[in-house]
Specification:
The protein is an all-alpha fold. The chain contains three helices and no strands.
């Protein structure tokens, strides 16, 4: 029997369990490692979107393993839409 893919498994902001799967980790392993990797620049969970931006996660690992010369940047803070 195949597992049906949910909308949270796809797209730009996958859930933590899906990120763990894509990185060949169990969810528990990934949760522990993500806390450590965030100190080195792994993108944090975006509070508005409820997940990590997948392309930024990929860019982080490309940078970490010398596969890219571009460094992923973290958001500089919450947006204030009231100033518009």
């Amino acid at each position: 029997m195949t597992r049906r893919s949910s909308h949270r498994d796809q797209g730009l902001f996958p859930c933590e369990a899906e990120i763990a799967r894509r990185l060949s980790q169990t969810p528990a392993e990934w949760a522990a490692k993500a806390k450590i990797l965030e100190r080195d620049g792994l993108p944090k969970i975006d509070p508005l979107m409820g997940g990590r931006p997948w392309r930024a996660v990929q860019a982080f690992f490309d940078w970490r393993y010398g596969l890219s010369t571009v460094e992923a940047m973290a958001p500089d803070g919450l947006e204030n839409l009231n100033v518009l």
